[in-house]
């Protein structure tokens, strides 16, 4: 321990009960609360982003390849999948490929009639995230020998039609000739996103193939999930250049642009909020060090009179500020991570699914962001400590000793 650290340590103990002690406590609380709020804000923001993105991806994946159609119909013309599948599987950026098909239908019960879109999925490639949306019942039971009669309804559709798990319902398909099928409600899902919950019914893709008289090699389209969603644009551009002229490529960010724009808006608001928090914490630290210097002006004059350099005295206050910063960061992490852990495991704070797309405040653990927030708080606080210490060079020993 050098002289500056030793004196800084002694001052820390001598300040107990003084005005400076109260100010230093405020500085520690300011750093702690600022860091805690930043940790919690980013954990909740990332939680919202991941929850909503996962709900969207469970219905649409990152990219969708389908037949080019100027009518913009939900029932796209079929495409052959074997060759296209081979090309996509050779792409190192592609994680999974899921064939799908859509068909419009009218559900009729004893008292209600409702138009829906059936999305047929494949047993081998059905996304696990879709299963996580189940609110009641079980997922579709696929059969090796025939198409499954099981379907998944959303909570909203089930409530409108007054259907529950295990009920049977008639689905009418407007085509030539018209068809009718009886399906069993095996499960009820809930995403909280009206774009899906008000329209989509999940079923077996083989039912749609049978209704359209398609062979097993034809599908309505392919949903492609990438290994890294952040590379969506460059990968989409690369895939598009290699597609046949009669195929189109849709990005999930363009299909549901309002949801993704809302997430970007959340990002901007949180960044502005965090800048204000850091500014307040920095201002408090600068004010604290200024007060320390003013209260220790006599001591600074004595130290200069006996030969202490400006750098030595400046280091003394720097180590004092460093001690406050470390304590503030410790308590900030304890409060912030503690709050996140309680919400993550016990969910004490609920949300209205109608407005927030989920029933509780989500928490996402991104340790790289948490580390970045700690480093940013540490460096900003140290910079705030250094600014007022340069006032020491302007203090004259004789005037400082007489200072009262």
TrEMBL record:
<protein>
    <submittedName>
        <fullName>Lipoprotein-releasing system permease protein</fullName>
    </submittedName>
</protein>
<keyword id="KW-1003">Cell membrane</keyword>
<feature type="transmembrane region" description="Helical">
    <location>
        <begin position="367"/>
        <end position="393"/>
    </location>
</feature>
<feature type="transmembrane region" description="Helical">
    <location>
        <begin position="26"/>
        <end position="45"/>
    </location>
</feature>
<keyword id="KW-0472">Membrane</keyword>
<dbReference type="GO" id="GO:0098797">
    <property type="term" value="C:plasma membrane protein complex"/>
</dbReference>
<dbReference type="Pfam" id="PF02687">
    <property type="entry name" value="FtsX"/>
</dbReference>
<keyword id="KW-1133">Transmembrane helix</keyword>
<feature type="domain" description="MacB-like periplasmic core">
    <location>
        <begin position="26"/>
        <end position="237"/>
    </location>
</feature>
<feature type="transmembrane region" description="Helical">
    <location>
        <begin position="324"/>
        <end position="347"/>
    </location>
</feature>
<feature type="domain" description="ABC3 transporter permease C-terminal">
    <location>
        <begin position="272"/>
        <end position="397"/>
    </location>
</feature>
<dbReference type="InterPro" id="IPR025857">
    <property type="entry name" value="MacB_PCD"/>
</dbReference>
<dbReference type="InterPro" id="IPR003838">
    <property type="entry name" value="ABC3_permease_C"/>
</dbReference>
<comment type="similarity">
    <text>Belongs to the ABC-4 integral membrane protein family. LolC/E subfamily.</text>
</comment>
<feature type="transmembrane region" description="Helical">
    <location>
        <begin position="270"/>
        <end position="294"/>
    </location>
</feature>
<keyword id="KW-0812">Transmembrane</keyword>
<dbReference type="InterPro" id="IPR051447">
    <property type="entry name" value="Lipoprotein-release_system"/>
</dbReference>
<keyword id="KW-0449">Lipoprotein</keyword>
<dbReference type="Pfam" id="PF12704">
    <property type="entry name" value="MacB_PCD"/>
</dbReference>
<dbReference type="GO" id="GO:0044874">
    <property type="term" value="P:lipoprotein localization to outer membrane"/>
</dbReference>
């Amino acid at each position: 321990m050098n002289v500056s650290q030793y004196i800084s340590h002694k001052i820390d103990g001598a300040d107990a009960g003084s005005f400076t002690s109260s100010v230093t406590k405020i500085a520690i609380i300011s750093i702690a609360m600022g860091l805690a709020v930043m940790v919690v804000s980013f954990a909740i923001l990332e939680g919202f982003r991941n929850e909503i993105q996962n709900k969207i991806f469970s219905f649409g994946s990152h990219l969708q390849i389908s037949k080019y159609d100027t009518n913009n119909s939900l029932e796209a013309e079929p495409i052959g999948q074997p060759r296209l599948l081979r090309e996509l599987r050779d792409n190192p950026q592609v994680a999974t490929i899921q064939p799908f098909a859509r068909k419009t239908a009218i559900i009729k019960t004893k008292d209600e009639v409702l138009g829906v879109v059936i999305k047929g999925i494949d047993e081998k490639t059905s996304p696990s995230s879709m299963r996580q949306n189940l609110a009641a019942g079980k997922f579709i039971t696929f059969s090796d020998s025939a198409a499954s009669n099981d379907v998944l309804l959303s909570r909203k559709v089930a409530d409108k039609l007054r259907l529950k798990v295990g009920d049977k319902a008639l689905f009418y398909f407007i085509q030539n000739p018209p068809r009718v099928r009886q399906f069993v409600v095996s499960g009820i899902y809930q995403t909280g996103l009206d774009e899906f919950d008000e329209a989509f019914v999940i079923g077996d893709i083989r039912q749609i193939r049978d209704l359209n008289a398609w062979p097993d090699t034809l599908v309505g389209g392919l949903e492609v999930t990438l290994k890294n969603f952040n590379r969506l644009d460059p990968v989409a551009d690369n895939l598009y250049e290699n597609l046949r002229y009669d195929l189109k490529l849709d990005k999930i960010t363009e299909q549901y642009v309002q949801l993704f724009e809302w997430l970007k808006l959340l990002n901007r608001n949180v960044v502005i909020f965090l800048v204000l928090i850091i500014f307040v914490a920095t201002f408090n630290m600068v004010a604290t060090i200024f007060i320390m210097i003013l209260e220790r002006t006599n001591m600074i004059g004595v130290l200069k009179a006996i030969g202490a350099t400006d750098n030595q005295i400046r280091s003394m206050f720097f180590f004092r500020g460093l001690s406050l910063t470390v304590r503030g960061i410790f308590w900030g992490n304890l409060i912030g991570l503690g709050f996140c852990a309680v919400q993550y495991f016990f969910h004490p704070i609920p949300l209205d699914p109608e407005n927030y797309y989920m029933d509780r405040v989500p928490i996402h653990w991104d340790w790289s962001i948490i580390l970045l927030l700690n480093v940013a708080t540490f460096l900003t606080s140290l910079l705030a400590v250094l600014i007022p210490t340069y006032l020491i060079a302007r203090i004259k020993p004789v005037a400082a000793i007489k200072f009262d």
